[in-house]
Amino acid sequence: MFKEKVLRLGLEDQFYADSAATSREEIGNEMYPPAKRMLTQKGIPFGHHRARQIVREDYDRYDLLIGMDDWNMRNMARILGEDPDGKFRKMLTYIGLEREVADPWYTGDFAKTYDDLDRSLDALIQKERERA
User: Fold this and answer.
1) CA-to-CA distance for 120 and 115, rounded, in angstroms?
2) With b meaning 16 or more CB within 10 Å and e meaning fewer, what string describes 87-103?
3) Number of Cβ within a 10 Å radius of residue 60
4) Any residues with CB less than 8 A from the CB of 103 and at least 6 apart, and which?
5) Spatial distance between the Cα atoms of 68 and 48, rounded to a whole number of angstroms
6) Which segments of the chain have a pLDDT < 70?
7) CA-to-CA distance for 4 and 71, rounded, in angstroms?
8) Quick one: pLDDT at residue 23?
9) The domain spanning residue 31 has which CATH number?
10) Could you tell me if 76 and 88 are in contact, meaning their C-beta atoms sit under 8 angstroms apart?
């Protein structure tokens, strides 16, 4: 979703994004089929993405490390260590919410997850453009 938003705004030369799991359950797996269906319905391409594990080197590689929920945030801290540069963010803080992104794996509500991400990603892009 992020990559498509950046592309549609013509900002692909200003942002680089990657996705990495903070746990090992999904490593090597393709995207969850209901998530693919939601993205297809919204006209968002997704390619042949396979989950990879976040690694310590990612801290130095990226300006921001964003987690969807408290579990992600704890795992990022465990794997990456300290956050001296303040790179860790929880996604919904970009829209002023402290709750977690609705996890469709448990809720089955992909529309809610899409809405959480759609609004948060718009805010993230705007905030980072202002900061640049």
Assistant:
1) 8
2) bbbbbbebeeeeebbbe
3) 9
4) 68, 69, 113
5) 21
6) 49
7) 26
8) 85
9) 3.40.50.2300
10) yes
What's the CA gap between 85 and 34, in Å, rounded?
Answer: 36
- How confident is the model over 82-93, as pLDDT tens digits? 999 999 999 999
For residue 86, give the amino acid letter: G
Distances (CA, A) of 39 to 43, 45, 46, 115: 6, 7, 7, 12
Number of structural domains found in the chain: 1
Residue with tokens 């303040």: 86
Q: Write down the pLDDT at residue 102.
A: 86
Whole-model pTM above 0.85?
Answer: yes
The residue segments making up the domain with residue 14 are 2-131
Contact, 110 vs 118, CB < 8 A? no
**Contact assessment for residue 59 and residue 82, using Cβ atoms and an 8 Å cutoff:** no
Helix pair angle (33-41, 110-131), 10° resolution: 70
pLDDT for 56 equals: 96
